Amino acid sequence: MLVAYHIRITGIVQGVGFRPHVFRLASEYGLKGWVLNSSAGVFIEAEGSKKDLDDFARRLVEEPPPLAIIRQCEISEKPLQGFLDFTIRNSEDDDSREVMISPDIAICADCKREVRDRKDRRYGYAFTNCTNCGPRYTIIKDIPYDRIKTTMAPFPMCPECQEEYEDPLHRRFHAQPNACPVCGPHTTLVDASGKEVGGEAVDYLKKGYIIAVKGLGGFHLACDATNIDAVKNLRQRKRRDAKPFAVMVRDLQIAEQYAYIDEIEARWLESPQAPIVILKSRQNPALPTDVIHPGLETLGIMLPYTPLHYLLFDEDIDILIMTSANISDEPLIFDNDAALEKLSDIADYFLVHNREIYNPCDDSVISVRGEGFPHYFRRARRFVPLGINITPGTQPVLALGGEMKNTFCITRSDQAYISPHWGDLNHYLNYRNYLSGIERFKQMLNTDPQIIAHDLHPDYQTTRLAQSMKSVKTIGVQHHFAHMAAVMAENEIQGQTLGLICDGTGWGLDGAIWGCEILVGDYREINRLGHLRYMPMPGGDLNSRKPYRMALIYLYQAWGAEKAAELARKYLPDLSEEECSLLLGQLEHPRGEIMTSSAGRLFEAVSAFLGICAINRYEGQAAIELEARADMSSDGAYPYKIEWEQDELIMDVLPLWQEITDDMEKGIPVSIISERFHRTAAKMFAAVLNLAREKTRLNEVVISGGVFHNEILTNQLVKLLEVYGFTVYQQHNIPPGDGGISLGQAIIASEVSK
Ligand code: ZN
Ligand code: ZN
Ligand code: FE
Predict the structure, then answer these.
(1) 300 pairs with which residues across the strands?
(2) pLDDT in tens, 34-68
(3) How many A from CA of 489 to the centre of ligand 2?
């Protein structure tokens, strides 16, 4: 007997080949009916025997197309209509702007096979893609997502591509960027004057040249990673840059020669997300690791994620430096003219193409932590513009974020959409991209929030932007409250909770620079329960670039001026006599210096004092290298003090500084001092949270802030907190640093304006 089912499937089901998948499955069972896409999900009506329909529905959920994520599947019985066949109905365009835009997706196995198959018409074609892979977000100019509204519009499909596009059974059915060598974009190899040169890019890489490669979301600078001269050249030509270079390797087997990779890390490398995964370097002598990742034990590796990248490898070349192409603090370069103009001192050749990148997007960077959770350093390609689930009923908010490594966030119904990172907004090019990014997100999401959330820092561009906005409601959110709320939102925590935020810089409610805060509260109201004891910080922001200054400040507090000067002469060679006496003078005769409780500054100061890194050439360098030097094989820790002072828990690390000094004087290796310092920090944070729990009776704690990029600190602290019976929440979908605060700002602003 025939019955009819009505099925509704929600989740990430658009732009992932869901309808052809349903069509094929329905055909397998000989079902009649139809499937269609709408803003509310994929709808199916199917008629057949009850057993077939049940099987069909079960397999829809159990075997979705690779990129689909099914959130819900609702099934109801319907009266029979007597359909004669199974059809794919046209999209319901009533409200198609509600449909989610898919992120870019790494090349799939089928496309990879075609690109390598000499007999295939897409053999060696750099822009091969299908419904399961290829560009999305980076090429979309407007919605609904149709070819005409993407940067593929100038490339009308040839008859063969058109046929694939229209065939419901084909892997390229409705694949908007579908292309082939006949009709699609193509690459050109040019020299620094823009003149076309013959030959293949891979041959130039083999000769040791540096090539600027236009990829999916922007340009990379590429060279043979095993060629010491080429890598050194690149490092020199990029000037002051000390940031570690990421590498791209041909496949997983090659990656294993250069780094230690466990099962979960391998899965990430080969995933459709294809992020840069930070791995423990094998220090393979084939690589100039001291030039690739100076001062670090880790190597960032990714696999090729477009056919264009695959074509940069052959039998002789299997590992390339692949570093984002930008000049110091400027944005990622993503168009041909800018590349030729700005990179001509760095790159010897340019592999460009004629498909415009509309929305630039950097590579995402993750590592795998503790129990196999991803830890985000940068959430960008393949994650933007995916939404993050938030509580239904959240109001539409535009949250402007912070300043460095900034993102913005827009909330719409039960999703929060976080932008890629924009770099330091003090640079006008970053700021310009950020502003246009906001407009593009609003358009893509078809929303124009009237609530604007921003940081409290009076000098942030984002704060000024909020102040300049008329006829909207602006809500200032304290920096570390936003960090805390971001973790709470991601973990769907309701009600009161404790928070420990360890961070670099954030404007405090009292005008001090906060950065190591014990907080308590919910989305509507957060209070400060305690903090790291304030240190005066003459020179303000100068101290975050020059950790040796912060070291002197701590030494002064611990030992007084005379001994501090003596220790500085011995251990802080970057500090000149003049700067030393000037700074000590300011500390002896304070004139309303800015105060700070920053944990980031503390870690950097220790790094400088130990002689590991005295000057930050990139954000957080001193702290990152301090962690890299820690030898976790022994034990021991330093003393610290925690005191209640006027209802606040004050953490005091001066006893720690005294013992670190003693250890240095005794000639204890810095790897052991670094280890002891990390262990002390974890013990102190666990102890202070214990005291906070006694006062508040709250047992749940969230941890966040840029300092928690530090894996040793995080692991030790979480272990201690769990022994003490706390439930600990961290971020597993967004970075704990300032790239994550826009989400927290948005949720707080939504709640307080209800
Ligand atoms: Zn594909
Ligand atoms: Zn074609
Ligand atoms: Fe922060």
Answers:
(1) 246, 278
(2) 998 776 788 999 999 999 999 999 999 999 987 78
(3) 45
